[in-house]
Structure of Ribonuclease N:
Amino acid sequence: MLLRSVPRLFPGLFLRLVACLVAVLLTGCSSADTTTGTGAGTGSVTGTSAPSWAEGMETVEEARLPAEARRTLDLIDEGGPFPYAKDGSVFGNFERELPRHERGFYHEYTVRTPGERDRGARRIVTGRGGEVYYTDDHYNSFRAVLR
C-alpha cells in the first residue's frame, strides 16, 4: 500500500529514482568501451597493452589524435621541414610529467591549433627510445601515443 502512494506523494523524486535505476541498468548492460573521453577528439585507451615506457600513463591511439597532431607526427617521421622554429628543440621536462631522463632525451614539436595566432598549447614530445607523447594543455598532462 505504501509503495503505491509514493509516486503520488513525491512525483519528482519518484521519476528521478526511476531514471537513475534505468541509467544504472543500462550502464551495466552496455558493451565495454575501450576509450574514455579526455579531450576534444581524443580518447584514452584502456584495452590496448601499452609499451613499458607508457606504463601507468593515459594513452591514446595515433588514429584518435587530432588531424593536426597526426600531421606533426608525419613531419617528424619525414624529418621536417617544420613550420615553427622551436620544433625539434630539447624539451626540458621541467614539469616532471614524463619519466625522468638526462637533458636532451626529449624533443618537442608544435601541433598547430586552428584559430590560434601563436603556437598554441598542443605539442608532441618524442623520446630518444621511440617514445611519443601528446599534450593539449601545454605540458600540464601527457598521454602516451600508441603507434
The first strand starts at residue 35 and ends at 37. The helical segments are 2-9, 11-29, 67-78. Residues 51 and 146 are 8 Å apart (CA to CA). DSSP finds three helices and eight strands in the chain.
